[in-house]
Design brief:
This protein has 379 residues and is α+β, with helices and mostly antiparallel strands. It contains nine helices and 18 strands. 25% of the residues lie in helices and 33% in strands. Strands 1, 2, 3, 4, 5, 6, 7 and 8 form an eight-stranded mixed sheet that branches. Strands 11-10-9-12-13 form a five-stranded antiparallel sheet, with no helix packed on it. The radius of gyration is 23 Å and the shape is globular.
């Protein structure tokens, strides 16, 4: 039977989860270390992932030079997440013990895919959007991160998920799930929703290089400052825009604390300075904000005009750059309740002829090295 016939057969459809595990910066490792050293490290790594995947009921589909692809049945999605956590935990311990010096990224996606037997060796393989998404999520994750798409979280029995850190701190199921994020992945026409799986004391986020790739792909630039808005723009200049992670949420009194991951500077914010979107502010949420002076002497500086990456917002188009019709760049304005303005970079693309200055639009907040950018802009 030809592959075309196999793929047309409804019996080739399989519902499950795919997990990709990739060694971070493996090429650099091979250049810096002797072959005997990096081969020993790779051997330890492959033994570790194979043991955890096998023990959790998964199947290694294939090795990919510096990583592996595994399959889990639909009733074992939580086991896939547990295996990913145990892999990261073992690597963390081994690094501290100087057993190895290595890190990896893991991406998990769940859904329907096509399965087939390879013609030459008879092994089982999988193909489809789910496979591509898992690979892409692993590819954009920072070292030590575990990314899972929203289908994975919905399909997993999350109370079955555990980690060493979670057991010590008595985490609940929800504590293992970071806030929902959204990112453009290569080959996907729309942004992909995903969550970072928590397994230790911090979140790791996406690789900075991936944000650079997105900038090149969409050619997002800082739009020219409209006349008459120079003074407003001073408040929202790029240097005042910060990205951080919520590390302490006090819902009882309506305030939160945010930490800048680059400088470790801590900021205070409260409901007056958080712009309302589709995703409520939550612990471990990645946010953009404006750095402001503290509200009182001796207090932490203020985070104003706070927006959550991955959240959906409504704002007004305040400027459209009409000089280049092929690359329509715009500014979207968001305000907190005290009047602080967060300018969002927007690439209108095919919407350029349909959206005008002054219109209200909906969009998702995405990461960009210059600040928050807008994806999936619509009325």
């Amino acid at each position: 039977m030809s592959y075309a016939d196999i793929f047309r057969d409804p019996g080739s459809i399989e519902n499950g989860a795919i997990m990709f595990i990739d060694i971070s910066d493996s090429t650099s490792m091979k250049e810096k270390e002797t072959e005997a050293t990096w081969l020993t490290t790779f051997g330890w790594f492959f033994d570790t992932i194979e043991n955890h995947i096998h023990d959790s009921g998964g199947t290694i589909v294939k090795y990919l030079g510096d990583g592996a692809m595994a399959f889990y049945h639909i009733d074992s999605v939580a086991k896939a997440i547990n295996a990913a956590i145990k892999i990261q935990e073992d690597i963390d311990v081994a690094n501290h013990d100087n057993t190895v010096s290595i890190s990896c990224t893991i991406g998990i996606s769940q859904g329907k895919m096509r399965t087939f037997k390879t013609q030459k060796n008879g092994g089982t393989d999988y193909i489809g959007n789910v496979v591509d998404k898992a690979a892409r999520l692993s590819g954009v994750a920072s070292p030590k991160a575990i990314f899972a798409d929203d289908n994975t979280i919905n399909a997993a029995v999350m109370p079955q998920v555990s980690s060493k850190r979670g057991s010590l701190s008595q985490w609940e199921a929800k504590d293992y799930i970071g806030s929902q994020q959204q990112i453009m992945l290569k080959g996907f026409s729309r942004s992909v929703k995903y969550y970072e799986i928590r397994w230790g004391d911090q979140a790791y986020g996406v690789k900075s290089q991936y944000a650079t790739d997105i900038a090149k792909e969409t050619d997002i630039q800082t739009p020219p400052i409209p006349q008459g808005r120079e003074r407003e723009h001073e408040k929202t200049h790029t240097k005042n825009k910060k990205i951080g992670t919520v590390y302490s949420l006090r819902e009882d009194i309506g305030c939160s604390f945010i930490r800048d991951g680059l400088t470790n500077q801590e900021y205070y914010t409260d409901n007056r300075f958080v712009i309302v979107g589709s995703i409520p502010l939550a612990n471990d949420a990645q946010v953009f904000f404006l750095e402001k002076d503290s509200l009182k002497a001796g207090a932490k500086p203020l985070a104003a005009a706070v927006v959550t990456i991955g959240g959906t917002y409504s704002g007004k188009i305040t400027h459209i750059n009409s000089k280049n019709v092929q690359k329509q760049l715009a500014s979207i304005e968001l305000l907190d309740t005290t009047g602080n303005i967060m300018d969002i970079f927007a690439y209108l693309g095919d919407n350029s002829l349909n959206i005008s200055k002054g219109e209200s639009v909906k969009f998702e907040i995405a990461y960009h090295q210059k600040g928050p950018s807008a994806l999936n802009i619509r009325r």
